[in-house]
């Protein structure tokens, strides 16, 4: 999507609002630490925390979550280009495809897109109806998804033109050895390969518009479609990347077989236990997180990320190491990620809560662990009939996903 030029006053106002929100977030975090220190002091003195103190910690923790979400929303809002007003200039002229697509969306004119199809033989028209969005619009949708879909943010993403990506993966590398200058070179054993298959599944959204909105020349159609479908696509994608069963949706990483790390084999994900059903251990709770970190090989650990939901994060925020330092640290600046034991942390709402036997925390190099496959092209079918007086836009994209390296991440299981 072509960018719009922002005026200086608006940019300064947006930056100031983000800075203020981040300052309020840091104040809330400082209040949380003080309240939690009181709670821990009560536990040391009385062997239990005061009920009012517990409630205060939980209340401030919820406020901290809200402040963090507010900062994220403001950052996402800043990414969105302004609507094209009368006096604002575009950075580049719209492409022929974009102009034709805009005429189709606004008034249902298909002829321009069909002429482009005949001239370029580019597959603009789908066999099942609908038209490919321009490259600018597809890029805008992909950029938004990368910003708000937590797993897409850290996983590997590959774009393909076929329905299925088949990827060979070396389970064990080729055999090698040392030899002298004149020694014989025996034939090495062939590497053991596994073929991984990643089919793409159809994901859809159906935003509706009024004719008045479509007739408004100031409305940027790229931005409008991106705004309307981003949340629907992101929510469905995120749920599938975590818990999808692989039937008409990607296979989520939580649905693969799990075994204790000591018994790990290819095809399953290793796990470390906390030693207590549904909780961290009462003493030295951080030991389980340390075990989880070092269950991962060094080659994966250097780029690893913690993944958990906000309720698990609330429990982790209260943990300290043996020296009394908090394991969870607030982000250093607006747009940065909070860290846990020095590793970045991503919040994914579809991760399970802490419960007996649950795998509530994942830790690994997700770029090597999980692969997202996007099939090239986003299609839009205009429907002015089904919901009169509104115009529906049946928008589809095809996406798949699955684990590609079973050794690149581990789970923390809340079990004895």
Can you put this structure into words, describing what you see?
Helix 3 packs antiparallel against helix 4 and helix 5 crosses helix 8 (221-243). It is flat and about 75 Å long. Helix content is 39%, strand content 22%. It contains twelve helices and 16 strands. The protein has helices at 8-46, 51-79, 96-107, 111-120, 135-148, 150-154, 211-215, 221-243, 286-295, 298-301, 310-316, 366-369, and strands at residues 131-132, 156-160, 164-172, 192-199, 201-205, 208-209, 258-260, 269-273, 305-308, 328-329, 339-340, 343-347, 359-364, 370-383, 391-403, 409-413. It has 416 residues and is an alpha+beta fold.
Unreliable spans: 1-10, 82-91
Helix content: 25-40%
**Count of discrete alpha- or pi-helical segments spanning 4 or more residues:** 12
Total domain units = 2
Strand order, main sheet: write it out. Answer: 7-8-16-13-9-12-11-10
The rounded distance between the terminal residues' Cα atoms is 52 Å
Q: Sheet bearing the most strands, described? A: 8 strands, mixed
Shape category: flat
Provide the structure class: alpha+beta
Mean pLDDT: 82
- Number of E-state strands: 16
Strand content: 15-25%
Compute the CA-based radius of gyration.
26 Å
Element string (H = helix, E = strand): HHHHEHHEEEEEHHEEHHEHEEEEHEEE
């Amino acid at each position: 999507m072509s960018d719009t030029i922002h005026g200086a006053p608006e940019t300064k106002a947006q930056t100031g609002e983000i800075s203020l929100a981040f300052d309020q977030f840091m104040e809330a975090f400082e209040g949380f630490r003080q309240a939690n220190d009181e709670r821990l002091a009560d536990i040391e003195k009385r062997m239990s925390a005061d009920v009012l103190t517990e409630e205060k910690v939980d209340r401030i923790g919820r406020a901290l979550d809200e402040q963090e979400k507010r900062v994220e929303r403001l950052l996402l809002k800043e990414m969105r280009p302004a609507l094209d007003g009368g006096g604002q200039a575009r950075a580049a002229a719209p492409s022929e495809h974009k102009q034709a697509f805009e005429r189709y969306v606004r008034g249902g004119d298909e002829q321009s897109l069909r002429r482009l199809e005949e001239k370029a033989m580019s597959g603009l028209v789908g066999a099942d109806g609908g038209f490919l969005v321009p490259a600018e619009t597809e890029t805008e949708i992909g950029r938004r998804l990368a910003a708000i879909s937590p797993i897409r943010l850290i996983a590997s993403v590959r774009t393909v033109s076929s329905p299925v990506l088949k990827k060979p993966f070396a389970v064990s590398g080729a055999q090698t050895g040392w030899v002298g200058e004149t020694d014989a070179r025996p034939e090495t054993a062939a590497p053991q390969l596994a073929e991984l298959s990643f089919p793409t599944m159809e994901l859809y959204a159906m935003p509706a518009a009024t004719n008045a909105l479509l007739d408004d020349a100031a409305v940027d159609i790229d931005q409008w479609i991106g705004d309307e479908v981003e949340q629907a696509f992101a929510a469905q994608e995120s749920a599938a990347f975590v818990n999808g069963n692989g039937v008409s949706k990607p296979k989520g990483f939580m649905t693969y077989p799990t075994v204790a790390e000591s018994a790990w084999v290819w095809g399953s994900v290793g796990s470390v236990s906390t030693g207590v059903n549904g909780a961290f251990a009462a003493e030295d709770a951080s030991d389980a997180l340390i075990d989880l970190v070092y269950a991962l090989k060094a080659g994966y650990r250097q780029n690893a990320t913690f993944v958990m939901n906000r309720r698990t994060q609330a429990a982790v925020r209260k943990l300290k190491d043996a020296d009394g330092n908090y394991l969870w640290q607030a982000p250093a600046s607006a747009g940065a990620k909070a860290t846990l034991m020095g590793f970045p942390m991503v919040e994914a709402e579809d991760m399970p809560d802490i419960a007996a036997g649950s795998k509530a925390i994942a830790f690994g190099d997700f770029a090597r662990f999980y692969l997202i496959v996007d099939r090239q092209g986003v299609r839009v079918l205009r429907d002015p009939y089904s919901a009169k007086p509104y115009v529906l836009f049946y928008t589809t994209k095809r996406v798949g996903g699955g684990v590609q390296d079973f050794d690149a991440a581990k789970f923390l299981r809340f079990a004895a």
